[in-house]
Structure formats: structure tokens, C-alpha cells
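#structure-requests
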Amino acid sequence: MSRTLSEFVAQIGPLIGDATGGTVTTNAVRDSLNRCINHLIKDHGIYATKNRSYVDIFPSVYEYSVPSDFFDVINLQRNASPRDLLRVTTEDFWSNLGSYSEVFAVDTYRNAHSLLIKTANTSASTTINACESLTDNGTWAAEGSTDAVNVATESTNQTQGSGAISFDVDVSNSVNNYAAVQNSTMDQVDLSSYASKGTVFIDLYMPSVTYITSVTLRWGNDSSNYYSQTVTAQHNGFAFRSGVNTLGFAWSTATETGSVTDTTIDYLNVRVTYSASQADATGFILDNIRVENPYRVELHYYSTSFVQDGTDSSYVSKFTNTSDASLLDNADDDILFNWALADAYWVKQMPNDRVEALRLCNEAIGRLKTRFNSEKKREVSFYR
């Protein structure tokens, strides 16, 4: 049975008290244990933090969000095959995207992580509207009573094909804090095989996202019968950025207004919502509206969760309450115990005892690593 914070305090306190006539506070022991946890997570692959999750991947998308407790990947497995994907560097992933297959990488941006995945095993996809020009497939126009103006064909900064749809924002054009463009005359497309499970993706260039709060997509038969979904971040989990954003709208959590016939989808509406501080802006670009079904892979990873909360049994990263318990086996808890004991000896100015406690801590780490080597895959670099 793993030890709780109160048990660590009860075991460490008397050892210090017997030698100095004083005791170490609960907060001091808690902070020491949490420092040790940070060290173990950062420098060692610890079995106690292993976790599993699923990632739904799509044919045209390469960046994916990670679980909230993610620290690093152990491996990625496809459901159809037990063979793991090969881990490469982030630079190699993007440099060789056209030639790579069955690879993944971990990208980091401003202390946030995303998974980069490229595999040949993906699911069905279809284009809803390629947005090649203002009138290529139906006619794109500003929705009435919004701030969208100057809807036009963009032929320079598209993300695919030969064109895209551009529009500007004139905040005095309406009393509403959003700009929306729509197409209600496009060719009908049968999306029944994607209903309730697919995700609709759009590429949206936003010149500045300082005051952007959300983007809403409507897809259906007309302005009275449609599905709608609102997102507040990119599909990869990162915040909106000034530039191209790949946005995913999950069908399974969309709201249906009216009654939509999935076999005859011919209406699209894209709305960008912002705060009252938004100023006039030029150069929003919409492109490549498609729907894709997910292909599921299993993510094995080291997490930041090292402790089980004593109040609700959830898994958390640090000790907080005295009833919180380590996720290590009881024998391996000696790592935490001796680390905290060494800190206590340091506070009490007992250097010889501190050295001995650190020796015992390192020996315990060595035994753990002998039994459980880190399973994290090393990055492989290819130069082509």
C-alpha cells in the first residue's frame, strides 16, 4: 500500500525530532516530496505515471492535442497493427512530410505540447467546398447583419488548390460582434456516412487574434436547418494564432437546428466572433472545407500524475492534502521518503545524515530503474 502524506510526515518527524529536539512541518515534507516528484518525472521514466489514451487522427490533419496530464510519449499503436509508429524529430517530421509514413513527433510551443502524426492508415474523407473562388461552387457572400465585408476570391495565400475566399471586418457594419460568410447555393453533397462521427475541418487565416473569442461553423440544408459547432482553439489544442488555423468541428457534439437531411448538404456558414474591442481588419481567408472520419490510434505515455487525491481518488501531479497517496509501490516510496528526509537534514544542518539519506534515495532510484527501464522511444533523425 502506497504511503500518504500524513504517513510520510509521521515517519520523518520523529527521526528529525530525536536528533534535534524539533520537528519538520507537514508543509515542509509536502514540498520536499513534490520536488522529488518533479525530479523523477523529468529525469526518469517512472512506471507509476504510465497512462493510456486514444487519439483520433484524420487524413489531412497532422497536429493533435495531448491529454491534460501528458508529459512524454512512450509509443503510438495503430488498432489494425501492433507495430509502433517510429518517433522522429519535429524538424524531420515537417521536412520530410511528403515522404514519411508511420511516424510521429512531439512538438512544443510556449510550454504546450502537441502530437505530430503521419500514417497511411486513415479513414474516409470528402470535400464539402474547396473554396476555389467566389463562385466556383455556389456563391460566397457576407451574411446579413454581420461585420463581414468585401468577400472576394483570394488567389495568392490559399492553403490548397488555386484559390480561397477572403473577407474583411468592418465593425461599424452591424451592431453584432461577429463577421460571417456563407454559401447557400453550393452543390449538394451526401455526408450521411460522416454523420455523428466525422469532423468538419476548415483552414482559416486570421490576421490578428487578439480579440477573437470563437469560430462557429454551420453546415446543413439552409439557414433554418443546419448543424452548428463552436470552437475556441485550434484542432491541435493550441490557442488561435495570427495566421493559418486548422479548426475542427466534431459532428458528434454539434447542435442540430431544424431538421437536416444529411444526404443533401448544400449550406455553409462560417462566423468569427470577437469582443467589443475588435477593430476593423482586412485579410481573413477561408479555405478547404472538408469532412473526415476518425482513425483511432492508442497513445501510451508518461503522465504528470504521481499522486492519488485522498478526497476524490482523482490522479494529480502533487501532494496537497494529508490523505493524498503516492502512486509508487510501497517499496519504491523509499525514494520519496529518503529525498524528503535529506531535505529535512539539510534544514536542520545535519550534513552527514543528509549525505546518507541521499545515498539511500539514489540507491532506491537505481533499483527501480533496474526493474523498470524507461520505455520512451528515442527520436530518430533521417537526412534526405
